[in-house]
């Protein structure tokens, strides 16, 4: 019959061998009536042995299960076995007092078959020989492994006696014991101290041969370091072992073999200690480990916990840290700082690429000023500091110098960081930045008359440009380098306009800028970068602005009678029926001229060209013969009439001031065609001559604010005509100029992912010239009824405007795929969008016109031919259907020459038959809308329209004009011609940003509806 004790053990083994329960089995086995949770809790809490360690709930539950199972064995046997008298008080049960008569029969692994445990009980009290060390360890599964040296001789039996808190003195007083023939044992037990006795035979007296124990560990070892002491505290899981604390030599790790000499004298049983044998700036390693000496004298130690501390001190501050670049040409710096004489602290200087990182900035910040040295191993710190400068420092009196330090290769700035180290800590002593700002190259001034744009290769490393505008004879030496006339923020201003802009500010805006006028100037520019108030400048560049001759003209009616009101500039009398062309010279009227310019003394010669028709007389072909008009510059400082007098069929102009040799211009009839005044020479003494129509600048503003206006815009045009580029440039312009002029803001429409994406990519487009890829064909998406995917070209991007003066509330932009323009079927995919559009911007790529291609060959990058633009326009017409059937009666068509910058360059080519066609001052060479609050300048619009039609005609593309005039295909008033340049220059130097030209004109025109 198995005892209750062994039943408990068997039940435990069956239920999964919970080693922590075993220690209760002796107690429980003596109290076989205990079967409920309360009884069990009561039993254990009243036992002396467990008085200090109440049974944890989970163990309680597990123990109850084991009891239940053990009892089930008993009931199966039909007998209740009790090892003890029922009257034995439970409280007296302590483990080493009473041992069950029978020993556990089923340990985990001993080969005990056939061994009667009761025959191996008696042992010698004093060991006979050397007691060896048994190795004891607890495996991950909780099983304890005990192994000892085999005792030689014939068949031996070992008895392993175990107790929880000290070595058992004999087998009988052990809390548990096992017999085995092997020299090892695996048991599930909670005991820690093991003694192994060997028996030569049954009933012999056993001899102690080995002992061993399970070691606990140091569970916690905390150190706090102060400038003169280190406080430490530890906890051990093993009260029977001694905690020993070792300390390394200063600034060294602990040796692999720890000797007593390295141990601190910590009083027995202490759990804290204060070590005062330390000095600021030193580092130490401490280790706390458990040690126990076996009866054989062998020392067993636990792994222990090792900690490192640095003894802090006040890290001195570093003064006078200066890093100076040898010269703008040399990539060497000289470093100096005030020596830290008498301080144990050390200084190291680091060099890192670029401006100070955010990490470095926060390392400098007050409040986080010292860091443990081991932080330097972290990549974040390493990146912030860069590499240590290895050039040797020289102490020179008060100063420490590190001379001729090579700068890290490459462009841009370098950050130098002086780090002060003391006592295992460091702090960032000082930071200096040496900005390597590149020299400015390739200056070019583009003069749009209404404003100028100074474009240059943005110097690497610069964040700002300093600009000085001085008299033509000024030299760099005479310039006050401290105070620039203008400071241009590259991100904010240069990128916004694509250059340093010389323009009058929009009314109401504070700005120190203005446009350049007739006087020659010398402009100095250099890139700078400022860090910590210190300015780093690159080499400057100079630009000679030659000034310009400005000839302004305006048409006036000849005052027939003294009293006649000087109303209505010709062609602008409101409410009058216009029988004569807008810009013809009226009978009995004249032109007024005003001249200002650097070349005062020279006569200015002008051409007067008159067209036979309403067309703008772009070239001489087909126009009336012209004469020259010689004007003495000095005489026309204010507007002066040149009267038209008619002699028969001839009209002559004469100055009312009667110049010595009045010039006569023969005009066949004043009634016909437009007049164009062009300079006879493009330049007078190297100064460009602008002949400008004064009216354009003085036109009344149209289109007041209208936040409810919604505009749906479709971009149409052959492949590679520039639609997507235009869309991007337009967004940039809207976001950073247009809205600014109207004190408003633009946002992507609510939940409009495409709009959001477009606004996000605009930045890169402007900065790096990153162009979106060719637009995908709608055919790829046509299976889905609705444009859901972001790159479906039928999907519109909606932008919303906010602001009291905004001339519109929202724009929806459709960027069509050029690929889909070739056939009506494909274009039909966009029928819905096209019919609903308020404005169709038809982009006509001049580079795709044969004539232009020929003259520009070799000079400009050609996009490669695609569909004839006229075919595209006809396809569009078919998709829109007959005019009378169109639902959107106000739909406008802006026929727009794209890439106008390229066209101008092509025209300027020596080989070009249109070399003189575009004279300075023509509407298409100006951009009066850029810096105004006028939504639209209708006079300018009309001029551009006429000039563009003349250009197209010259290029053999007269068919476009015909479409506009026909009326049956597009209603006449709703078609207008435009020019636009999205990039402002060819694509070679994109990194310098874009400078769009007349980019918003079609939209401004579409807004004009408001005032009707
Ligand atoms: N010089 C100059 N080139 C331009 C301008 N706008 C666009 N381009 C060039 O024209 C090419 C075509 O531009 P895209 O905007 O992709 O043309 P697209 O009409 O959208 O083409 P698809 O999407 O294929 O229909 C690009 O290589 C641009 O660099 C401009 O204002 N000036
Ligand atoms: Mg595209």
Strand and helix layout:
Blueprint: H1 4-14, H2 25-29, H3 37-46, H4 57-77, E1 132-133, E2 135-138, E3 144-147, E4 157-163, E5 176-180, E6 184-187, E7 193-199, E8 207-213, E9 218-225, E10 230-236, E11 242-247, E12 272-275, E13 283-293, E14 299-301, E15 305-310, E16 322-327, E17 330-338, E18 346-353, H5 358-364, E19 371-372, H6 379-385, E20 387-388, E21 394-396, E22 399-406, E23 414-422, E24 425-434, E25 441-447, E26 452-457, E27 464-471, E28 486-489, H7 490-497, E29 500-502, E30 521-531, E31 534-537, E32 541-545, E33 549-557, E34 589-596, E35 603-610, E36 624-632, E37 640-647, E38 650-655, E39 675-679, E40 683-684, E41 687-693, H8 694-697, E42 710-717, H9 723-741, E43 745-748, H10 753-768, E44 797-802, E45 810-815, H11 824-827, H12 831-836, E46 839-844, H13 850-856, H14 869-880, E47 892-897, H15 900-908, H16 938-954, H17 958-966, E48 975-979, H18 1001-1007
Bound molecules: guanosine-5'-triphosphate (GTP) and magnesium ion.
Description:
The chain has 1012 residues and is of the alpha+beta class. 18% of the residues lie in helices and 29% in strands. It contains 18 helices and 48 strands. The strands form 11 sheets. It has a 7-stranded mixed β-sheet, with helices on both faces. Helix 1 packs across helix 4 and helix 16 packs across helix 17 (958-966). The chain is elongated. Bound molecules: guanosine-5'-triphosphate (GTP) and magnesium ion. Guanosine-5'-triphosphate (GTP) is lined by residues 717, 719-725, 771, 774-775, 817-818, 863, 898-899, 901-902, 981-983, 986-987.
């Amino acid at each position: 019959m198995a005892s209750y004790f062994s039943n408990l053990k068997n039940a435990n083994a069956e239920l999964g061998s919970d080693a922590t329960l075993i220690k209760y089995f002796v107690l429980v086995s003596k109290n076989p009536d205990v079967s409920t949770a309360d009884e069990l809790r009561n039993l254990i809490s009243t036992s002396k042995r467990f008085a200090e360690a109440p049974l944890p709930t989970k163990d309680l539950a597990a123990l109850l299960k084991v009891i239940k199972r053990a009892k089930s064995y008993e009931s199966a046997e039909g007998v209740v076995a009790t090892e003890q008298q029922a009257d034995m008080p439970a409280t007296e049960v302590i483990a080493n007092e009473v041992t069950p008569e029978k020993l556990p029969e089923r340990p985990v692994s001993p080969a005990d078959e056939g061994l009667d445990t009761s025959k191996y009980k008696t042992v010698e009290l004093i060991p006979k020989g050397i007691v060896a060390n048994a190795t004891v360890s607890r495996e991950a599964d909780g099983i304890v492994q005990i192994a000892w040296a085999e005792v030689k001789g014939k068949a031996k039996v070992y008895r392993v006696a175990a107790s929880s808190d000290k070595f058992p003195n004999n087998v009988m007083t052990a809390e548990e014991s096992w017999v085995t023939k092997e020299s090892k044992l695996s048991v599930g037990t909670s005991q820690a101290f093991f003694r192994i006795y060997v028996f030569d035979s049954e009933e012999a007296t056993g001899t102690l041969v080995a002992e061993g124990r399970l070691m606990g560990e140091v569970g916690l070892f905390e150190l706090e370091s102060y400038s003169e002491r280190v406080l430490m505290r530890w906890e051990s899981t093993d009260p029977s072992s001694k905690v020993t604390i070792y300390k390394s030599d200063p600034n060294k790790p602990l040796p692999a073999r720890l000797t007593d000499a390295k141990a601190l004298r910590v009083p027995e049983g202490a759990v804290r200690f204060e070590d005062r044998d330390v000095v600021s700036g030193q580092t130490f390693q401490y280790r706390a480990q458990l040690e126990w000496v076996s009866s054989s004298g062998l020392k067993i130690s636990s792994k222990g916990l090792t900690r490192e501390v640095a003894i802090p001190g006040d890290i001195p501050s570093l003064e006078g840290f200066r890093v100076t670049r040898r010269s703008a040409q040399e990539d060497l710096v000289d470093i100096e700082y005030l020596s830290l004489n008498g301080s144990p602290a050390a200084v190291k200087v680091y060099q890192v690429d670029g401006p100070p990182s955010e990490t470095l900035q926060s390392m400098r910040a007050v409040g986080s000023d010292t860091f443990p040295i081991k932080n330097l191993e972290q990549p974040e710190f390493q990146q912030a500091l860069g590499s240590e400068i290895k050039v040797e420092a020289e102490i020179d009196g008060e100063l420490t110098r590190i001379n001729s330090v090579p700068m890290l290769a490459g462009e841009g700035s370098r950050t130098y960081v002086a780090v002060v180290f003391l006592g295992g800590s460091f702090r960032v002593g000082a930071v200096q930045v040496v900005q390597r700002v590149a020299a400015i190259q390739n200056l070019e001034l583009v003069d749009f008359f209404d404003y100028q744009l100074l474009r240059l290769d943005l110097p690497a490393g610069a964040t700002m440009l300093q600009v000085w505008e001085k008299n033509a004879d000024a030299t760099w030496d005479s310039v006050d380098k401290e105070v620039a006339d203008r400071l241009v923020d590259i991100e904010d201003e240069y990128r916004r306009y694509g250059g340093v802009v010389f323009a009058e500010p929009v009314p109401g805006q504070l700005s120190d800028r203005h446009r350049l006028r007739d006087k020659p100037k010398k402009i100095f520019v250099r890139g700078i970068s400022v860090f910590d108030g210190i300015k780093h400048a690159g080499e400057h560049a100079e630009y000679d602005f030659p000034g310009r001759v400005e000839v302004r003209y305006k048409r006036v009616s000849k005052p027939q009678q003294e009293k006649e009101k000087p109303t209505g500039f010709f062609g602008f009398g409101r409410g009058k029926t216009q029988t004569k062309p807008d810009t013809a010279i009226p009978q009995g009227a004249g032109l007024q001229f005003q001249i200002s310019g650097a070349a005062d003394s020279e006569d200015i010669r002008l051409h007067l060209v008159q067209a036979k028709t309403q067309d703008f007389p772009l070239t001489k072909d087909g126009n009336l013969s012209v004469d020259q008009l010689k004007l003495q510059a000095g005489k026309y400082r204010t507007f002066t009439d040149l009267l038209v007098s008619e002699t028969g069929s001839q009209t002559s102009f004469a100055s009312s001031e009667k110049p010595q040799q009045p010039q006569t211009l023969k005009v066949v009839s004043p009634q016909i065609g437009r007049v164009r005044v062009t300079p006879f020479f493009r330049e007078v003494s190297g100064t460009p001559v602008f002949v400008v129509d004064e009216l354009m600048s003085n036109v009344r503003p149209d289109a007041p604010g209208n936040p409810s206006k919604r505009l749906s815009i479709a971009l149409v045009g052959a492949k590679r005509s520039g639609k997507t580029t235009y869309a991007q440039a337009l967004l940039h312009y809207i976001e950073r100029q247009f809205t600014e002029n109207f004190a408003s803001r633009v946002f992507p429409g609510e939940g409009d992912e495409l709009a959001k994406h477009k606004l996000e990519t605009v930045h890169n487009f402007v900065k790096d010239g990153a162009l979106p890829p060719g637009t995908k064909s709608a055919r790829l998406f046509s299976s889905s009824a609705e444009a859901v995917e972001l790159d479906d070209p039928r999907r519109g991007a909606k932008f919303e405007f906010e602001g009291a003066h905004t001339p519109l509330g929202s724009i929806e932009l459709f960027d069509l795929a050029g690929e889909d323009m070739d056939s009506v079927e494909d274009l039909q995919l966009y029928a819905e969008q096209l019919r609903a559009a308020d404005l169709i911007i038809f982009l006509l790529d001049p580079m795709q016109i044969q004539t232009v291609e020929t003259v520009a060959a070799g000079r400009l990058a050609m996009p490669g031919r695609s569909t004839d633009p006229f075919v595209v326009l006809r396809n569009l017409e078919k998709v829109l259907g007959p005019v009378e059937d169109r639902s959107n009666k106000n739909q406008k068509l802006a026929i727009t020459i794209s890439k106008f910058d390229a066209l101008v360059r092509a025209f300027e080519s020596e080989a070009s038959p249109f070399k003189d066609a575009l004279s300075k001052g023509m509407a298409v060479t100006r951009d009066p809308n850029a810096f105004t609050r006028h939504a639209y300048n209708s006079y300018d619009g009309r001029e551009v329209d006429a000039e563009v039609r003349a250009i197209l005609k010259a290029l053999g593309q007269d068919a476009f004009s015909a479409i506009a005039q026909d009326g049956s295909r597009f209603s006449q008033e709703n078609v207008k011609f435009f020019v636009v340049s999205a990039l402002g220059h060819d694509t070679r130097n994109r990194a310098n940003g874009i400078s769009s030209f007349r980019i918003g004109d079609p939209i401004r025109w579409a807004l004009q509806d408001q005032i009707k």
